[in-house]
Amino acid sequence: MQTSTLKLGLVSACLALAFCSFMVSVPPNELLKKVYENQSDTLTKVKLPPGVDPESEDWKGIDLEPKAPVRPLGVAEEQSRFLLPPGYRIEPVLTEPAIQQPGAIAFDGNGRMYVLELRSYMLDADSKNELEPTSRISRWEDKNNDGVYESGTTFLDNLIFPRFVLPYGKDCILTMESDADNVYKYTDTNGDGKADKKELFTTKYGRSGNVEHQQAFMYYGMDNWLYSTVNAFRVRETPNGVIREKTGFNRAQWGVTHDDDGKLWFQGGASGLPSYFQFPIHYGNFDVPNEFAKGFDVPWGAPVKLADMQGGMDEVRQPDGSLNRVTGAAGNDVYRGDRLPENIKGQYFYGEPVARIVRQINPVVTEGLTTLHNAFQDQKSEFLRSTDPLFRPVDMATAPDGTMYIVDMYHGIIQEGQWTQKGTYLRTKIEQYQLDKVVGLGRIWRVTYDGKERDKAAPKMLNENSAALVKHLEHPNGWRRDAAQQLIVLKKDLSVVPALTSMALTSKSVVARFHALWSLEGLGALKVNLVQKLMQDLNPRVRIQAIRASETLYKAGEKSLETTYANLLNDPDANVVIQTMMTAKFLKLPNMESGIKAATEKNNAAGVKLVGSQIIEPPKSRNMGPFGGGALNKEQQASLDRGLLIYSELCSQCHGNNGQGTPAGGGKLIAPALAGSARIQSHPEYAVRVVLHGMEGAIDGKTYAGGMMTSMKEHSDEWVADVISYIRNGLSNDASLVTPQQVASIRAKTADQKGMYPYEKLIKTVPHELQPQESWKITASHTTSTRIGGNVSPQSAFTYEGWTTGGRQSKGMWYQIEFPKEVNLTELQFVAPAGIKKGWQRNPKAPQTPPPMVQSYPRAYTVETSSDGATWKESLVQLKGKEGENVVSLGNVKTKFVRLKLNEDLAQDSDEVPWSMRQLKVFGQN
């Protein structure tokens, strides 16, 4: 596998010739011809910004000579530019013009490949139209089994920079768009290869920011939870809704994968390094020193001569113009297939598109702690390099055929527009080589090995019954095991429980035992006696999996496991002890601290010492930058703590310890599940009315053994606010907290209520969110894009991107919604974000200086309504906005038009503060 020193020398000697030859190749398809036509045939003279001295210290030593454009190569020519270890080969499986600008891939149970086509990404150096609905998710199939995906459909079209694609059962995917908050399930119901059914899967999943800083890669973990980059939580679907749990910060941007033991590996972006990989992320963060071997951050790409590095000449290795320190990373995979050499199984691979390399990383575990080593560092090389500067590896995956696929965006610019602005070093290099003209291309490659043929037995899992799926759990290809487990769990077929139980106990394949165990957990069929037995297994890896899986049972009330956990703190295997300590922390076991202290003192393994000490005395929180979460203040945390106590003492008897309902026998629950409940997480008035006055009757047609919810209005406003805040925020939910003032207002409004609410009457009474429709006409007096590449549209106020007037607030500015017919409006909500002061630019010599911020909330405004758009009525006069969340209560106004209008000028000598809104929500009543 290792590349010889002689071979490296010969390759290096040929690279200059290879670099020259790519500029004169003949384009073989229409898309390449179009790129050629857009590029100038003449040498590009560098135009520096006005006032820039090329002899100054900042520009000294930079090659500013006129250059010929970097021409894209045909697929065969690019293939010849790859450098791989001896025995490895690379071949195309899908290329342009069939696909354009691929960003990620995923496979369904029949091995069909879904491609995330980010067709709006960096079409010029200013990222113009980046958020236009021109991206898509396509689906491809190799029907003639020749290794090439020749048959495809556009599964989902007209998307705004989609964040991920996750196959989720038969002919179904999960995805979401940029600047959005909702994840949707899309299904092809008629078998034509195109999604025709759209369902809400979960909400409160998004965030704002440029497209590189938003959540990505929704990923199905072995533990049946769904994870993503950036977001510090995980979600999973249950019969009663999608629930969530908080996790540690993964600090990732573009890439999530897992190993044979189900541990997730998150990929950093700007760091150029893997971000979190030591322990499962749901246990929180542990600070581990020396995670990376010496020299790990040094990439060894081929000399491509361009020196087009965002960080300038400090990031360039001379004289070859390659990257000298990792600076951008994307896509990752722990290889778990069966058609490449055995010695790379379990190795971690990720792409560095700025360096034009794919790295192979060897994880070395010592005393429970992992250190990452570049497998080719001694040879000053990488697993895969290219002399083609347009090679941009952005994703990779173990494939259904047992090999590994690499997604190559094959793009001129790989940095988002925020870092390619006029006057920057990178912009100069982009224009010098006409990299901004190379768009609309993309290739997907298969890595193979001599003597190891790809698996030609195409999977057909979507057509198989549950019993057949169970057999796949013993397959040597990890992708097939993962796909089979997911389908078993989604089918909810309990007939396979005996077979799964037997496999978990007796299979000769240890990884099959893992999948069988987690399949039982996903089916809700995991039993205490099974995990108790597996926690005593001779194999420590099995014991660890059993401990993790048992957490589900403990959360559901199986307290008998506490004794077993206590005993496992004395396990002879350090990794088992570490796992037990993390489980104890996660479950908040009684007497946890004393047991962990004793284990830490007795066990000398470095990992036990580190984990134990950081559980007992957590390290100080670090600044999470754009990937952190908003912390609660002391009052809010105190409210949640009081709410937890109330819930545990009173509500859990009927609603369950974990909020998923207490079983009453016969398949019924005593009371409805609160975890993952859309009703609970919607407008808080629903929950407040129920707690104050009680409720009876079937809920959405479902009856419960308890029959009714009794009134609790004798409790104080603070008591009601505390318990509802905990339910909305602490039971796998993610909704706003409730204040005593809100409770008092609703208490006064409903003072005449006699007896309990019938559910059907209550649900028609409380406000519900009106989702924006195409039939809504949304206009504004002033509209400017909130960021580079953003949309210029008042509709953006409903997204994380947001809407802004752009210029200084002035009297008469307005924002208006026209509904197709009259509606009963009750409330408007919006977030007024702070923005960077106009004209500010960071000083590169003082990168830690925080930018000056301006508060763009409306200083003074009114809310007006109208039935015809001509005669207006002031529903609310002289409102004052505030930073952050703004809630505008309208009572119950029947109207066709609603308008927010500024009624005050900002002083001319003040900062040029615009009026901005995002995450706008409109509430009404039936």
UniProtKB/TrEMBL annotation:
UniProt-recorded Gene Ontology molecular function terms: electron transfer activity; heme binding; metal ion binding
Keywords: Heme, Iron, Metal-binding, Signal
Domain (Cytochrome c) ranges: 638-731
Entry-linked SUPFAM superfamilies: ARM repeat, Cytochrome c, Galactose-binding domain-like, Soluble quinoprotein glucose dehydrogenase
Highest rank taxon of the organism: Bacteria
Gene3D superfamilies reported in the protein's UniProt record: Cytochrome c-like domain, Galactose-binding domain-like, Leucine-rich Repeat Variant, TolB, C-terminal domain
Signal peptide per UniProt: 1-18
Pfam families registered for this protein in UniProt: Cytochrom_C, DUF7133
InterPro entries reported in the protein's UniProt record: 6-blade_b-propeller_TolB-like, ARM-like, ARM-type_fold, Cyt_c-like_dom, Cyt_c-like_dom_sf, DUF7133, Galactose-bd-like_sf, Quinoprot_gluc/sorb_DH_b-prop
Protein known as: Mono/diheme cytochrome c family protein
Source organism: Runella defluvii
